Amino acid sequence: METLWLRVRAPFAAFRGFQAGVYRATSPVMPHSTTYGLILNLAAIEMRAPMTEAITDIRDGLPRLRIAVGAVSNAERCSIYQQLHSYPVGASV
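and the corresponding structure tokens:
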């Protein structure tokens, strides 16, 4: 088994898991799903399956990884605001 060490220093970041919807939760520490997505992006591997429905699925055949996430220092608490908007779509105008 090979080991890849990746240290991310991002004091500005609001980490989000792979999720959809109007409200997206944030975390002070990078969640495993976010770490996995970042590693796939760095390796130029697309995570999303072809869109055949309104929901984006994760495609089959992605590499399996064992991921350990830790914090070198405690995260600072800040306020992040996400503005929620409702835009008319299609025939709902």
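(Above: one complete record from the training split.) Helices lie at 32-42.
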